[in-house]
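=== How it folds ===
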Amino acid sequence: MRNRKVAVMLLACCFVIWNGRSLAEASSVGERVGEVVSTDIAAYVNGKQIPSMNIAGETAIAVEDLRESGFDVSWSPRARTLRIAPKAVGEQAPVDTTLMREPATLPIGTHLKDVLYTDIQAYYGDTPVRSFNIDGRTAILLNDLYAFGTVTWNEVERTIQFQAKPIAESGTQEAWREAGANLMLHSVKNVSFSLDFREEGQFYEDEQVGFGENGLPYMKLDFFADKFGFAKHIDRKNTELSDGLYSFSIQPGSEQAITYWGGEAVHTSELIFPPQVKDGDIYLYSIDLERLFGYIGKWNQDSRNLLIRYTSYDVKDYGLPTQEPSDKLTVKAVVTEPPWDFSLNGGMALKLDNDNIFGNLNTAMQKTGAADERVSWMEAPIRLHLGDNRITTELAQGDRILYSASYPVKTSYEAVPLNVGIPGFKLDQTEVGYIKTDASTNTLTGKADSSFAYGVSKFEEGQGLVTRASSPVQVEVKDGKFQMPLTLSNGNGLYQVQLYRPVATPRGPGYSNEGYFYVMLLQP
């Protein structure tokens, strides 16, 4: 019998069969080298069960899943590396000891997924470990981690456990990671030069790189591409400039530009003026050029000189929580670079999107880091709907995408706080901001120091919160108590109750938003 003193939900386990070629023989990314089939082996890391698979007789796990088992895992897209760093004991989440019934498993040997060759290199600290691609995730072998702790196989229980070596209580996190940064960018290349604005046009030293038309400066696209290390590709009428993951395409005479990340089109933006062709070269209006390349310019009116700074970055993506009990998630990003004589974070922003329903944007604020390094700090909350969310995070300098990624986040709303600005407001039915009911007509009771009003909206798939009522419903408070009739008239699902207080405005009576709570209607 398997020891069930600490029982958790049995997670997917699988076995991998090679297709007759060794991994060393694989030569191209994405080439199939084996298949994943089901098995009954359960894997544990630092005492917590984790989804597992068996590769050529050895148990493997997805590197990304280690974030839930006491590790920091950072992804660097340009270097194509995943780095695993154990947290200090005090930083680790407690092991889930909740007793849960194990679901039925698939018959052993059932085909699940393919194993693909990958060029992504995984590291435990600074030590490389073997890695494999399983459905877009990076897998490593538990036995390869023996040097960093203990790996224990139990034949009777059909379990394998990895326990990481303890580290100092101070942990191994970088300072800004300790501050909660999910994304960390550090400058790796800096390009700076100046342009002289003369009567004949714009000059770099003795080379003319631009001209003026109607008082507007147009500058040569190829000059900036060469300076910043962008490769150029011409396809019919389109000209595409790429620095690897980020690229943009333009067309002479067109006021539209398309920006890409990882080869996928992300945004279509409007240029101020269309590109021009002169003597076979493409020229862009200076502000359009600055936005697309994502550089910063500092103008000196006295010397008629434009100082230009361009920086490229290495990214460490530490991911987002896969489970969130509330209706909001805050994403934090930090950019560090050496000190300079003017700020490079002008126009830098963190953009968030949740399934094209909720969004947010925050621009960078400057802080001072170690050794006087320049620090641009960004953080922004994003609303989460109940259930499965797809959070897209983008860091941008002007129109240049510095990093973009999407993350799945599942919510339960069980810990949504009841944050209400109405003095003395309390509900008898709950102490948190989430109520379940099987009745479409309810009367909520509670306490408050003053009268208030409320409105009701319902979450609709693909639309977000939809309000159908025309005006707020008034609730009177007598002797500090209230009764609040609540009708949920649009069927089963999630409703938000928005609370208001009446206020005087220059145009007459109005309302101020004072918080909200959720009601889940679950009729039989």
Summary: The first helix runs from residue 175 to 178. The helical segments are 175-178, 221-228, 286-293. Confidence is low (pLDDT under 50) at residues 1-12, 16-24, 94-104.
